[in-house]
Amino acid sequence: MKMRARLVSPVSLLAVSALVLGFTLVTIGCGSGSNSVPGSQLTPPSGSQPASGSSGGGGAGSGGSGGGSGTSGGGSGSSGGTSGGGGTSGGTSGGASTAALAYVGGTNVFYGIRVDSSSNVSAVSGSPYSLVGNNLSFATAGNLLFVASASGDFKSGSITTYRADDNGALTQLSTTALKSSGGADIAVDSTGKFLYGTAEAVAPGQSGSSPALVGFSIDQNSGKIADLPGSPYFLDGGMSTAGKPVVTANGAWVCLAMELARTNQGARCYTRHGDGSVDGKNFVAPAASTTGVNDLVASIDSTMLFFTNGEQNQVISTTISNTGSVRTYPSGGSFSNGIARSPVGHWVVVSNRDSDNLSVLEAGVGGLVPTGNTAKTGTNPNRLVFSRSGTCLFVTSASGTVVYSQDTSTGVLTPLNLSNPAPGKDGGIATM
User: Fold this and answer.
1) pTM for this model (two decimals)
2) How big is the chain by its Cα radius of gyration, in Å?
């Protein structure tokens, strides 16, 4: 669908605001610490507020201690195995401080990757970490790492909690069995107090499993998770298999990809309450795709979803409502696969599996603007996620994990280790 007018650029708005308020916008490299650009929240598009019935979620997106970072679950998407790729320098060297950490799945192991303040990429001490079963996804809250895995026969699953030190080395804290017939894709809300996982569970009085969402509260001191009231939450609006959960920044919605009756897959957003519980019967259906929802993120202002649709080579934006405005954009390559949204809100990056490249789009009022900026990746790029500062981007591929520095004013990506990727391929990925 063609746009009638170019979207308002948030970077332009920020530049004006910076002059008025006396701030200076500074481009910050991947290893240079936090991004402190003020006022990065987007102005919500008119008519795109969540539908009625979403009360109780407000307030979960601000002021939380140690909120969760971006995560991306594992997926099929790329050819090649799931064992680790080529390594970078081993261990963590002294002198430079830690700028960003990522954890990436493999086969019965997962890997820790560290970027220091000089933009050097290395393996975390103790990496790789052994894992019982198959890794499915990761989520983080503060210095806690949650690892979801499934048994070899996918009949059971669990979530294991670790605590990371300043250089990313992990200490295992606890393991919790899932009320599910398999593993889960997991996500943490912006406060870092609640964890959610997709599931297949048997509802009371039923003989077969149904799509569900499990919810947990997080004890930041012990790292233990505890079932939320009413969990698991059985989800109306889909046939089977939910995945790729995303909690909007304002806490009002848990959005995910669902298999549907008449189309391949669609995005569904379920009402979330202030106590963390989810209403599986109260949802909106923003958009559907006949070729699938390969990956999914929410806008920083919690009004929109952005997702990729694979072989159609597109990125879709839609408002979170039943009558949302749906727009399509070229992905800038072949087979749009993973997608990540910068925590500063300006940029959305898409991995194109069959053309081995990344494309940068600018998030603006009402949708996206393709920038034309691309970057080469390893073979068959899959999942990707930004660091918490928004200046590092980690991308898994069949070649391993490549780290990029992003210029926060232009969106341009510069690879740090393309010729020597870090370990980790097709599994989930999350950052600290």
Assistant:
1) 0.82
2) 20
The whole-angstrom separation of Cα 252 and Cα 173 is 30
* Residues 99-141 pLDDT 10s: 999 999 988 899 999 999 999 999 999 999 998 888 789 999 9
Three-state SS letters, the chain:
CCCCCCCCCHHHHHHHHHHHHCCCCCCCCCCCCCCCCCCCCCCCCCCCCCCCCCCCCCCCCCCCCCCECCEECCCCCCCCCCCCCCCCECCCCCCCCEEEEEEEECCCEEEEEEEECCCCEEECCCCCEECCCEEEEEEEECCEEEEEEECCCCCCEEEEEEEECCCCCEEEEEEEECCCCCCCCEEECCCCCEEEEEEEEECCCCCCEEEEEEEEEECCCCCCEEECCCCCEECCCCCEEEEEEEECCCCCEEEEEEECCCCCEEEEEEEECCCCCEEEEEEEEEEEECCCCCEEEECCCCCEEEEECECCCEEEEEECCCCCCEEEEECCCCCEEEEEECCCCCEEEEEECCCCEEEEEEEECCEEEEEEEEEECCCCCCCEEECCCCCEEEEEECCEEEEEEECCCCCCEEECCCCCCECCCCCCEEEC
Distance CA 126, CA 116 (A): 17
Residues of the chain with pLDDT below 50 are 1-28, 32-66, 75-88, 92-93
State the amino acid at position 344 in one-letter form: V
Over the range 352-372, which residues count as b (16 or more CB within 10 Å of their CB) and which as e?
bbbbbbbbbbbbbbbbbbbbe
Question: 363, 347 in Cβ contact below 8 A?
Answer: yes
Question: What's at 1, amino acid-wise?
Answer: M
Look at residue 227 in the predicted model and tell me its pLDDT.
Answer: 96
